Amino acid sequence: MTRHARNCTAGAVYTYHEKKKDAAASGYGTNSQRIGKDSVKDFDCCCLTLQPCRNPVITKDGYLFDKEAILEYILTKKKEYARKLKEYEKQKQKVEEQSRVQTANEELKKLQNFLKGEKTIVTHDSNATDGASVSNMKNGKDKVLPSFWIPSKTPEAKEITPQKPDKTIYCPLSGNRLKMKDLIPVKFTLIQDPDDKRSHIVKQARYMCPITHDVLGNNVPCAVIKTTGDVVTMECVEKLIKKDWIHPLDSSKLTPSDIIPMQRGGTGYASVNDSLEGRHERPVLQA
């Protein structure tokens, strides 16, 4: 395989590196890049703030939130619902008022047509002119004509039917119904290391399983015991808890619904251990 100069385009050799470089400079095609560790949320971070939770709670679907952040989210959604409900009531009242005015105008029009028919009972000569006006502003037509300078009066404007807003609050990640009473407090077990004098937030290994003392992390599948809020590894659940369904710490009875698998972190375009690749879609070069 021969080599050629940098600007040579007539040679028979077109290497992969040159092809990739030209494709990136052309502005066409799709660029892909593997997502690094910095783009993946830690397992103990809030799904809204992306910061370590100070007062962690978890939903029934396994999404971890900081209690302050999720309560603020719920409160914001309730205020938004109250605002939309006021707009809906105002719009509904406006539609009802327009309907009453339209009904009154139709009744008035029927009465005017009846009175006009009573006055013109006498026969007219077909060749005689009745002196009727041809103006498009007579007989109330000035109110029927569209006002092209008002957007709501243009012929293309469509009547918008008011829709009552949904009162239900949905989880920002799973999309399922979210209630305050369904939030379960979570209790992480700290790693006690007297030789490590660093701050808790700086440590890479901060928590451990209270039963097996395994270090918890993004690469370790975890679960929350609903009754006590303890965070344990899925390996502990499979090998110890599922044998007799007894909590190893307080010897209480457990059921399969008391085990909530934790959803591990990920960005908006990549999921952990599923698709750690970001793609930038660009126009396709067509011949």
Automatic annotation (TrEMBL):
Domain of life, source organism:
Eukaryota
The Nitric oxide synthase-interacting protein zinc-finger domain sits at 4-78
The chain's coiled-coil residues are: 71-114
SUPFAM superfamilies this protein is in? Answer: RING/U-box
GO CC annotation, single:
nucleus
GO function term, MF aspect, one:
ubiquitin protein ligase activity
Q: Note the CDD domains from the entry.
A: RING-Ubox1_NOSIP, RING-Ubox2_NOSIP
Q: Which terms are listed as keywords in the entry?
A: Coiled coil, Nucleus
Q: Which InterPro entries match?
A: NOSIP, Znf-NOSIP, Znf_RING/FYVE/PHD
The name this protein carries in UniProt is Nitric oxide synthase-interacting protein homolog
Origin organism is: Ooceraea biroi
